[in-house]
Amino acid sequence: MDSVWSAEDEAIIATNTDATECKRCAVELGYWKDEYICYFAKRGERKAPEINRGYYARVRAMEMFIHQFLERCGTKCQIINLGCGFDTLYWRLKDTTQAVSNFIELDFPAVTSKKCHIIKRNKQLLEKICKEDGEVALRGGELHADGYHLLGCDLRCPGEVRRKLAAGGAAGALPTLLLAECVLVYLRPDAADALLRELAAAFPRVVLLVYEQCNLADRFGAVMRDQLAARGVPAPAPATHALAPPQQAARLLALGFDAARAWDMDAVWRALPEDDRARAERLEMLDERELLLQLNRHYALTVATRGALFADLDLNA
């Protein structure tokens, strides 16, 4: 039976468009390099400096841990991007020496269909996927190629996730990096827990990177939840989701990971190399420093691992 998508699902899908437009704005202002984001988002209105800086911290922090992961296992590994949206990480890695054995992206079929269409019509994207003699299979809003799979999937259904990962060639024996950026927080707590428990059990050598809202039980958090609700997005329940960073880490330990650490984005920002922060701060004047601090304290990066290979991953490594 086909899944029935609700109005809330459609609102969640729309957050992908917003995030991609924000990333394009920050890229065009020089916060980081991404030659591929322009294919996935139109040029929109300029975002506020605190938004641009927040996205830079998010992207930079994820890159730091991806680099640590690849340092430990080399290219014989796999990356699984949960709720991938229009993320361009696959293409950015292909432009480095860090291309991995297999890269699997999962999202709502409406998102993967559109991403497939964008890839198909842009040679610069397609040629990075298709090797000289390789084949690319595009069908039903999904894409299969040697080392890259883009699959429509309802992350709330563990059985469907299992089937899609198998179709994408996921291997339990390979070191695995799981990415979940602003995804789990929009699932019901029981559905998110079931997904995480299953993934922790499936991959004995794994790193999970989670970026999402936190500390939503205070007044500023209530404003954030109201803004989400006004757009039709189900607001995370602060009692079970969007917890303080230590609680987010404890939750992942309880779901089967060996180790977990979490930091709010203010701590992440302060941990970035000083020259990185200085360069970003020179790009735009920031009048609302208090607003940026509040935003950073309401987003968190959580890193959970299984296996001795990744036991020493750390924000300050």
Automatic annotation (TrEMBL):
InterPro entries membership: LCMT1, Ppm1/Ppm2/Tcmp, SAM-dependent_MTases_sf
Keyword Transferase: yes
GO MF terms held by the record: protein C-terminal leucine carboxyl O-methyltransferase activity
Keywords: Methyltransferase, S-adenosyl-L-methionine, Transferase
Domain of life the protein comes from: Eukaryota
Any one of the GO CC terms: cytosol
GO biological process per UniProt: methylation
The protein's Enzyme Commission number: 2.1.1.233
Reactions catalysed: [phosphatase 2A protein]-C-terminal L-leucine + S-adenosyl-L-methionine = [phosphatase 2A protein]-C-terminal L-leucine methyl ester + S-adenosyl-L-homocysteine
Pfam families: LCM
Binding site for S-adenosyl-L-methionine: 58, 83, 154-155, 181
Its biological purpose: Methylates the carboxyl group of the C-terminal leucine residue of protein phosphatase 2A catalytic subunits to form alpha-leucine ester residues.
Family, as annotated: Belongs to the methyltransferase superfamily. LCMT family.
UniProt protein name: Leucine carboxyl methyltransferase 1
